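Appendix B. One record, verbatim.
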Amino acid sequence: MNRFTTTPRSRASSACSAFALLLTLGAVGACTSYGPGDLGPGRSEAEVRNKMGEPTGRYPLPDGGSRVEYARGPAGAHTYMVDVDAAGRVRSVEQVLTERNFNAVQIGTPREDVRRLLGRPSETRGGWRGGGEVWSYRYDWVGTCRWFQIGVDNSLVREANYAVDPDCDDNRKD
């Protein structure tokens, strides 16, 4: 399978990105918690919102509950999904940007299922094979800076692959 190609950014661009990330994390930390901490099963969705702020997405679940997305940071290396039942009580909390979840994305997976599984991408760009989009999910894997990319058309995943994140510091190798 072909890799999606990107143009590496300069060290100055990477430094600016890192500085912007630190500023944003500081601002987020002043108002809400970055991660879920002790929020677990049985807590109310209102408690989650008080601790983590406004969600970045919401996806319906088949049993009438919801999957509530909390994408964190401009780099998007962490996305927490909080599953709540129809009564608004937490059933589970998970950091979903993991290889286990990425490997669950197969060719032919509906794009709505990908969003419910992984949340919003760190980066989206058009022009995949002339008509779709490329969704890129940043994540950290054992000290390396990686991303998972998905080529989607109007309704389905058409391609998926791992790659080195172009925003990585030149000194970090996989």
